[in-house]
């Protein structure tokens, strides 16, 4: 082989080597590009995972479904855990009512503690009972099935609203602090009545109002006679006829709804009608 031929072969080999080196560099660049892309993809996955897990932590048990975002590439699915925040917000609503009830109980306790004689104590208790009966009447206007029950509730509400204004005037003149809310037991009682419907509601409401007004008539009669505070005595005397009329009305409604009639007081040890003297055993 001639020298010129050998030189040509060498140059061709060098050219081939340079081409191969360039191709290798290109492959290396592609590899780096792939690594960069993989890193970017990994960042997106990490972001999705962080978004999902972050939202899951904030939103409680419901947000745990958002943690599914960690398995996918889309961090957006993690934000679905935000619905857990809404569910979580439902919790404090019940807590808020509980705190309100607790505040009412504390307020009532303070009012009772400040009522340092029977007249003032009567006024505090009358305010609680009056507020409760007004709320019962409001519920009855919406839920009662019998129109006569609705009419009784409407009249009772109007009369008790007027009595409430007079009660507050007497309290202000007598220096009595009145509670601003209802005890938890009264709030729960109202809630139970709201769950009733139809004839069942009508009978339970009339039964409740009959017992409440029987108690009120006895109390107001005694206070109208025994009270030493002139303002409170006048309030009791002025309100008594209205309560007596309500009691008569509610007795008629009770009979119309098939409730048992009121009984006279029985001597101690007397048999109840329909009872037997034998043992049940």
How would you concisely characterize the structure shown here?
With 281 residues, the chain is mostly helical. It has helices at 3-63, 82-114, 118-143, 147-174, 184-194, 198-226, 230-256. The longest helix is centred in the first third of the chain and has 61 residues, at 3-63.
- Write down the secondary-structure element order: HHHHHHH
Radius of gyration: 41 Å
Assign the structural class, choosing from mainly alpha, mainly beta, alpha/beta, alpha+beta, or little secondary structure: mainly alpha
- CATH topology name of the domain at 92-256: Ferritin
| Named CATH architecture of the domain at 92-256 | Up-down Bundle
Detail the poorly predicted runs.
Answer: 1-103, 272-281
Give the class-level CATH name of the domain at 92-256: Mainly Alpha
Q: Helicity range of the residues?
A: over 70%
Please describe what this structure looks like.
It is globular, with a radius of gyration of 41 Å. It has helices at residues 3-63, 82-114, 118-143, 147-174, 184-194, 198-226, 230-256. It has a domain at 92-256: Ferritin, CATH 1.20.1260.10. With 281 residues, it is mainly α. The model is unreliable at 1-103 and 272-281 (pLDDT under 50).
């Amino acid at each position: 082989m001639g020298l010129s031929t050998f030189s040509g072969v060498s140059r061709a080999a060098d050219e081939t080597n340079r081409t191969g080196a360039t191709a290798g560099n290109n492959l290396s660049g592609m590899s780096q590009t792939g690594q960069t892309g993989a890193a970017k993809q990994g960042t997106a996955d990490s972001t999705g995972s962080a978004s999902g897990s972050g939202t899951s932590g904030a939103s409680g048990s419901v947000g745990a479904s958002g943690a599914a975002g960690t398995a996918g590439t889309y961090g957006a699915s993690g934000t679905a855990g935000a619905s857990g925040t809404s569910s979580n917000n439902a919790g404090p609503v019940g807590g808020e009512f509980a705190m309100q009830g607790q505040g009412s109980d504390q307020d009532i306790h303070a009012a009772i503690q400040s009522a340092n004689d029977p007249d003032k104590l009567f006024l505090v208790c009358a305010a609680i009972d009056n507020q409760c009966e007004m709320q019962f009447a409001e519920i009855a206007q919406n839920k009662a099935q019998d129109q006569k029950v609705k009419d009784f509730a409407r009249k009772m509400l109007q009369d008790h609203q007027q009595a409430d204004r007079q009660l507050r005037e007497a309290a202000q003149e007598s220096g009595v602090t009145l509670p601003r809310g209802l005890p938890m037991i009264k709030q729960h009682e109202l809630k139970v009545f709201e769950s009733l419907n139809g004839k069942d509601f009508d009978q339970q409401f009339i039964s409740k109002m009959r017992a409440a007004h029987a108690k009120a008539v006895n109390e107001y009669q005694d206070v109208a006679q025994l009270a030493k505070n002139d303002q409170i005595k006048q309030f009791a005397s002025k309100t008594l006829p209205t309560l007596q009329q309500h009691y008569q009305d509610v007795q008629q409604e009770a009979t119309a709804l098939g409730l048992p009639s009121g009984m006279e007081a029985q001597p101690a040890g007397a048999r109840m009608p329909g009872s037997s003297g034998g043992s049940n055993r």
